[in-house]
Design a protein that fits this description.
34% helix; globular
Length: 89
């Protein structure tokens, strides 16, 4: 949020950015964290946009793509993460 505050966003937009990034990080933890790896968050900008990138070592979202034990397990399936992120940003 310290990075996003440097730009012309109001408090509502900052809250949306915070929620979207939080959802992206949660998805990286749930779907992409491979034991012994890390999750990277990078921030950047140009004249037209602010960019926040989340990178994990996982291969995808499907169970078949995860031969390791997941670091985080939800009691019920989700599936709304991308919809939430797209609606916020």
């Amino acid at each position: 949020m310290a990075f996003a505050r440097r730009f012309i966003f109001d408090e509502f937009e900052l809250a949306d950015i915070s929620h979207a990034v939080g959802e992206a990080v949660a998805n990286a933890i749930e779907h992409g964290h491979v034991p012994g790896s890390q999750i990277d968050v990078r921030c950047g900008h140009d004249e037209m946009c602010v960019r926040i990138e989340i990178e994990d070592a996982g291969g995808g979202l499907g169970e078949a793509e995860k031969p390791w034990d997941r670091a985080f397990k939800k009691p019920e399936p989700g599936g709304l993460g991308f919809i939430i992120m797209k609606s916020l940003v």
